[in-house]
Amino acid sequence: MNRKLRTKLPSAEEHVTRHKLPDIKQKRYYDHGSNQLKPLETTDTVRVRGDGVWSEKAEVLARVAPYSYLVELERGKRLRRNIRHLLKTKERFVPVHDDDDDREKEVCVDHPSGGATASTNQSAVTPEAAQSSHSTDQSQPVSTMSDVRTTRIGRVIKLPSRYVHD
Q: What residue segments make up the domains of the chain, in order of their start?
């Protein structure tokens, strides 16, 4: 079928090329329902497909490859996506920014040692976190604080009652 004939006898051209016809016919049927996706422009608003749903709005920042684009979601995250996973919309792109001002402000926190210190941007403490830490310090003794174990995420690990010693 797809092997080179090793004979010295002459052969008709139609015997050699007849296998090309099914390939062309197959391609025609395969491409029947397809369409070319139009290229996106920068600053176009698109929906990003995730988990089978066109969920998040994004803005096209740049074309990275022939079918790949760099987009920025409304929440500020940047992604590289194939054009198949981007749907152009007429919606307006409105970036949603977190309250970065709260993180950048310097907050004065009173420590139990009596002194007040100002924290920098690197170790900023919000007023809510400072109040919650003061309330936990006053309500629980120090000895029980060391008994509480938490996971990396912050979940408190409660041991079963059979392991708790009174």
A: 45-88, 100-157
CB contact at 8 A, 82 and 71 = no
Q: What angle do CA 153, 158, 163 make, to 5 degrees?
A: 140
Q: Give, in order, the Cα–Cα distances in Å from 76 to each of 1, 11, 56, 98, 156.
A: 56, 66, 11, 9, 31
C-alpha pair distances (Å), 20 with each of 3, 14, 24, 26, 144: 14, 10, 7, 10, 80
Give the whole-angstrom CA distance, residue 48 versus residue 34. 21
The answer on pLDDT for 86 being more than 90 is yes
* DSSP annotation string for 36-73: PPPPPPTT-EEEEEETTEEEEEEEEEEEEETTEEEEEE
Question: Which tens digit of pLDDT belongs to each residue from 95-142?
Answer: 886 655 444 444 444 444 444 444 444 444 555 555 555 544 454 444
Q: Which of 9-13, 16-20, 109-113 has the highest mean pLDDT?
A: 9-13
User: pTM for this one?
Assistant: 0.45
Q: How far apart are CA 120 and CA 107, in angstroms?
A: 8
Q: Round the CA-based radius of gyration of the chain to a whole number and report it.
A: 32
